[in-house]
């Protein structure tokens, strides 16, 4: 990973930071990030307890000692965060550590602050997940442990099964009607909308959600889709459909976001892109290590294929079972390519992509179309800055407009202090309707470039 200075923002545009006490960034660093650490500690503590019951004494003592060490380092991290201490280096042997530390060193000079609240929010929030991974990287026995899986990702998946079954049935119906172009376009519109609304179930936001209730909030049928549609505040869907329907067999990239219901909706879309002939291949970009609680790692993909198939068998849903089997087949045949790149788990905005990750950039330039999923990818596209909401998207993506040639769409539900491309007066209307419109996940954006 290249050591690359953070791209500067235009004069007068500041990055979002926790030091602005009225911001969602502030609430996130003050309240939500410490809770995420507490949950990680709790998960490890429970595992320690289970270890005592399950494994032999020798394995126990080494693993137990390491887990205790992890718990104490995570508690220290939480302490430093709450007290707004200076952020510390990433200390492990991974290939990205040097880059992280180069950026930690440059914080003061680039942004005037190097503590948890004074440094850019994007930087410190990403850093927390990298520091959690550092804790496990330094052990022998816990390197591959996903601390978010047992108590968050897996229960959330189980709580979403009802929605997944409904979604799969509905989409099978939609697919069967897609014979001509018009049918294909209508079908694609639905697949994209489900992929968009799937983004509501991001577990770093839903830290206190009851996983058993996930179904209630998920758009999984045509009926709730039309209810949700009025909440798409920027909607470039028609242009996106036009572009996609004219690709005729190229490669489409999906920069994945969360595992669980969102991933299942994304995989349904990826599957449709192939089965409809729109794309020959789909490249699925996953995260290298557990990230923002629920982001998809390669392990999550495998786990999801198996878990969907198992659930389908349990409930006797042949359609869903065939779907899951087809997904495994698509990977085997090379029609779905799963890719991991260090870049997605750095704090860089996409403005840095050409210099920080030149190979990834060349690869994206071979794509016919890129779909960026979720809120964090949106923040990274627009550099997580204090843009006014009427800033044109083309301005807020800065150099990305020229450096990544493939046309793209961002599908995100709004969960942070940034949204651009709104019409004059639209922000006021939204505020009038819902003071939390920017962060509640209730509103969505289908925002494209190059279409
Ligand atoms: O999974 P997503 O949609 O990228 O959401 C991640 C988002 O989670 C949050 O922690 C929720 O507020 C934001 O900081 C971040 O943008
Ligand atoms: Mn996410």
From TrEMBL:
Q: Which GO terms describe its biological process?
A: DNA damage response; intracellular phosphate ion homeostasis
Write out the similarity annotation. Belongs to the damage-control phosphatase family. Sugar phosphate phosphatase III subfamily.
Name the EC number(s).
3.1.3.-
Residue limits of the Damage-control phosphatase ARMT1-like metal-binding domain?
28-429
Enumerate the InterPro entries for this protein: ARMT-1-like_metal-bd_sf, ARMT1, ARMT1-like_metal-bd
State its cofactor: Mn(2+); Ni(2+)
Swiss-Prot/TrEMBL keywords = Hydrolase, Manganese, Metal-binding
**What is the name attached to this protein's record?**
Sugar phosphate phosphatase
Q: Which SUPFAM superfamilies match?
A: AF1104-like
Which reaction equations make up its catalytic activity?
Answer: beta-D-fructose 1-phosphate + H2O = D-fructose + phosphate; beta-D-fructose 6-phosphate = dihydroxyacetone + D-glyceraldehyde 3-phosphate
Molecular function (GO) terms listed? inorganic diphosphate phosphatase activity; metal ion binding; phosphatase activity
GO cellular component terms, alphabetically, are: nucleus
Which species does the entry assign this protein to? Answer: Rhizophlyctis rosea
Q: What is known of its domains?
A: Subfamily III proteins have a conserved RTxK motif about 40-50 residues from the C-terminus; the threonine may be replaced by serine or cysteine.
Q: What does this protein do?
A: Metal-dependent phosphatase that shows phosphatase activity against several substrates, including fructose-1-phosphate and fructose-6-phosphate. Its preference for fructose-1-phosphate, a strong glycating agent that causes DNA damage rather than a canonical yeast metabolite, suggests a damage-control function in hexose phosphate metabolism.
Q: Name one Pfam family in it.
A: ARMT1-like_dom
